[in-house]
Amino acid sequence: MLKKQPTKFKISIIGSGFVGSTIAYALMLKNIADEIILIDKNKHVAIAEQLDLSCSLKNICNCNIYAGDYSDIKDSDIIIVACGRSRKPNETRLNMVNDNIKIAKNVANEINRYYNKGLILIVSNPVDIVTYKMTQWLNLPYGKVFGSGCTLDTLRFKNVISNLVGNCDKTKVEAMVVGEHGESQVPLWSRVKVNNVNLETYCAIKNIKINEKIKQNLAQQVITMGSNIIAGKGRTNYGIATCMVNIIGAIKNDKKQILSLSSVLKGEYGIEDVALSLPSVVGKNGIETVCIETFNSLEQQMLYKSSVIIKNTLENLKKEPIVL
Ligand code: NAD
Questions:
Q1: CB 111 within 8 A of CB 138
Q2: pTM greater than 0.85 (yes/no)
Q3: Whole-number pLDDT of residue 195
Q4: Would you state the pLDDT for residue 94?
């Protein structure tokens, strides 16, 4: 009897710049994919990254990596959109919208030409806007198009809390950021736990000072961490690559993990017709459901405000036709 061939896990990465190539590197180190395709407007970049990655990782990973064209996205389990210009030090992510939405439209046209299966994972900024527009342009079933959203902010939030409580193991910190992946993000202080204990209680037990001012300062550190990194080295890449490996691991292994991902809302928390991050169950079919959990009234207000900011940006976009 013929043995059933194991299905290969194929990932296409559109945009082979710092972010795209670092995601490829992290995926290869983790041995998650059987095949990775690097696609870039500048084919020389994709070829050079492919060469660099395949030479360095040949002996420690079974993944085949190629530089390809859009036609190679066929049969991908995941298509990552990581192209677009990166942020300048004094810019917000929303400031890049006009440049990156044109690139995203171009990419959507190409995906529509060749797509036959798979999830679309958006990384390009402003990620909530690009996720919303991509969802419209690609018109795929629910949960198949989503953005990395506030996974990176959540990682950074956990990090500042871990530092606050004396560099405890970050896996012992439960925390999440929701809303915009940007300035109006919402750190869910009411749900922060360390070692399964509510943050305030934990700080009281350990004699660690915590008050509103300290919280605001920490939340601000999370918001400005990206621009501080960009001011120093011109880009951020390792954090998002780490998040992507986590998201892709949850998809591949159908973990039903709850992550703060960006997707188009359908009335959750009274918000609709905008993409932003909320705790979302992710598995092999993408986002399976967005969780409705209890946020306190300040967090709900902040979330609503965040949705208005993103909606206004979408409204402004409508005023200018996208000329390719
Ligand atoms: P980069 O300039 O290094 O790379 C971008 C690449 O996209 C370039 O190689 C460029 O040739 C390519 N490109 C442009 N238009 C294209 C098209 N139409 N088709 C294919 N490729 C195209 O930038 P980067 O540092 O890699 O950042 C990429 C994006 O990721 C930016 O939008 C950045 O803001 C975003 N980013 C998101 C997060 C997040 O948390 N979501 C974190 C970091 C960076």
A1: yes
A2: yes
A3: 94
A4: 85
In the chain, which stretches have pLDDT less than 50? none
**b/e map 129-157, b = 16+ CB within 10 Å:** bbbbbbbebbebeebbbbbbbbbbbbbbb
d(CA 83, ligand 1 centre) in Å: 3
By alpha-carbon position, which residue is closest to atom 43 of ligand 1? 236
Distance CA 148, CA 250 (A): 13
The answer to whether 40 touches 69, Cβ cutoff 8 Å, is no
Q: Which pLDDT score is estimated for 18?
A: 97
Residues whose CB is less than 8 angstroms from the CB of residue 267 and which lie 6 or more positions away in sequence, other chains included: none
* C-alpha 15 – ligand 1 centre gap (Å): 6
What 8-state DSSP symbol labels residue 2? Answer: P
Tell me, what's the pLDDT at 139? 98
Within 6 A (CB) of ligand 1 lie 14-20, 39-42, 45, 82-87, 100, 103, 106-107, 123-125, 127, 148, 152, 181, 235-236, 240
Residue 320: phi, psi to the nearest 5? -115, 120
As a whole number of angstroms, the distance between CA 273 and CA 96 comes to: 21
Q: What is the pLDDT of residue 1?
A: 62
Structure tokens at 207: 């004699």
Cα separation of 170 and 150, whole Å?
Answer: 17
DSSP 189-236: GGG-EETTEEHHHHHHHHT----HHHHHHHHHHHHHHHHHHHHHHS--
| Residue to probe by mutation, ligand 1, list 40, 106, 233, most atoms within 8 Å of CB | 40
Which long-range contacts does 67-70 make (Cβ < 8 Å, 24+ apart)?
A: 67/16, 67/37, 67/38, 67/39, 67/40, 67/43, 68/12, 68/37, 68/38, 68/39, 69/39, 70/14, 70/39, 70/110, 70/111, 70/113, 70/114
Residue 60, pLDDT score = 86
87 CA: nearest ligand 1 atom: 34
Nearest of 28, 11, 29, 36 to residue 121 by alpha carbon: 11
Residues 164 and 203: their CA atoms lie apart, in Å, by 9
